[in-house]
User: Fold this.
Amino acid sequence: MIKSQIESLRCELEQHNFNYYVLSAPTISDFDFDAKLKQLQELEAAYPEFYDPNSPTQRVGSDNVSGFEQVPHVYPMLSLGNTYSEGEVQDYYERVRKGLNEDFELVCELKYDGTSISLTYENGLMVRAVTRGDGEKGDDVTANVKTIRSIPLRLKGDFPELFEIRGEILMPWSVFEELNREREEQEEQLFANPRNAASGTLKLQNSKTVASRKLDAYFYYLLGENLPSEIHSGNLKVVHSWGFKISEATKVCKSLEEVFSFIKYWDVERKNLPVATDGIVLKVNSLNQQKNLGFTAKSPRWAIAYKFQAEKAVTRLNSVSYQVGRTGAVTPVANLDPVLLSGTTVKRASLHNADIIASLDLHIGDMVFVEKGGEIIPKITAVDKDARILIGDKVQFIKSCPECGAALVRFEGEAAHYCPNENACPPQIKGKMEHFVSRKAMNIDGLGSETINLLYQNRLLQNIADIYELKIPDLSRLERLGTKSAYNIKDGAEKSREVPFERVVFALGIRFVGETIAKKLAFAFKNIEALEKATLEELVAVDEIGERIAQSVVRYFEDPTNVEMVNRLKSAGLQMSLSDEKLQAHGEALAGLSIVISGSFSLHSRDEYKAMIEMNGGKNVGSVSSKTSFILAGENMGPEKLKKAEKLGVKLIVEKTFLSMLQIETPLLDSQQGVLF
Ligand code: IVH
Assistant:
């Protein structure tokens, strides 16, 4: 009864997923969908005996960070030969004709510019998703791929018992732009293009974050025995009926002219697609003919890619300006005569760093080639040296900061120049404040970059600690602010006193100390006094803290301005030590034990468990061996680890038991018994 209720909910939700993500034609409101999903989640939690790794509830991801297992490909993942002109396409067509010596059809498809993936289905269930890797073996990213809503976890219709299907995982432009906007706000490195963003996302350790990135996928290649059709286009149609998303831009062509008109049409029309494409793929339609043509060592003879020309424009370089960021990094920007490129007017292009400027041999007044390719920020790819009539001044990277005049420095092994004047260089001061108040740091509402600038100009904010000493009358006196905003800022600052210590460490804006590193430092040193006093040796002894980060932390606290500011923050009542609850987990209960964490957990995150192990004298190790004391086992543990544990007789301990070993109280969970075997 319950079982069939669970199953029918699963089926219904799968159909809605397909309608929404594959057909783009939903038949239910988001609200109703969420309600049904919640109902299923509750049933599954109450009846764990009906657990199913392919249930629609598994698409939300988990905090599992067990690293990826390397898996050999059953069929190697080859690449495609490239062509760049109609002439080369014609040559390919002739080669195929000679090779086959009979009539043939070519299927034209879009070449999606993402990251390729190979999925294995057994009895209609997705069992494995593997990246291309080196073509012979790739990373098992199944947990991450399961979060992609347009990929079916369970198939409909009549499918072979076992098959592989290959396709491209993509980050839609809109998601990519939003992600980069957020990253810019956080001064995190931007993704250069949606391809890098998609492959970076797929390699994330936390599948919950992957789920939030809204990836999409198109499929274009079915492999296995007993395929449904003798022709490639037939197989594509059938896989669509099983639940896969295939491109609507797919055409069977009987002549070279038809191929050219497909190319011509899509070279323009692709700009209206929600995802990036970089060419066309031509494939011989008959599988039998494909077999006859075979493969070279690197690529099939039955398929080839035609790459679209990257859009280029030529324009004049007028000047180079330099921007200084929160960390003092100086970015050179080329100012250009406005020119139209891929539908937008380009006036500026990034020049990245001094080495790139030097390698381009840039002179002011040069005619330069700008390209957009897959990137959103255009780049200068070359100088048209023949167009030089009068040669202008050679572009030399500046020696001093354009904002404060300090001499720039360049750290060994780094491409960027930095302004070292951290405490007096205006964009650095303002940038640090923006970082301090940002959402993932102190989350102080009402202090956007414009307000910070206003308060800085009016000398109300000169230092992060001033935020806690702002006075309502001073704020509301400012013409562009008003009383309501003034209260809003005070209120935001007040609330931020509750922000936990690990986020305060992040908020300080120590160079190279991002969110994760801040957490590690907070858990390792527990309070600001210990962190201030930490030596280089003590810092590098912390897991994942290398010399570069350690040096930056030491340097930060060597600066009396920073120490004074931290002291003022302390007096303002910010959280300067780990909360009691987090400290509770401290002791020697796990001294000398070697512990592997595997699976996903519901009571604490993996990072927290890792910190608990380390704080209790244990060692967290990555792989199971005969030396492993036990495995802290969550749900959906990796099958390889499970097999190994069984073979070596390593105990599995569930989270509740683990917490009780450390005498940490947990809510009672009926479904969890202590040791599993
Ligand atoms: S077929 C044996 N079809 O391009 C090769 N590939 O350079 C089978 N790609 O690794 C690949 N769109 O990541 C094929 N419609 C399409 C494609 C496509 C993009 C990618 C794929 C592959 C690379 C080859």
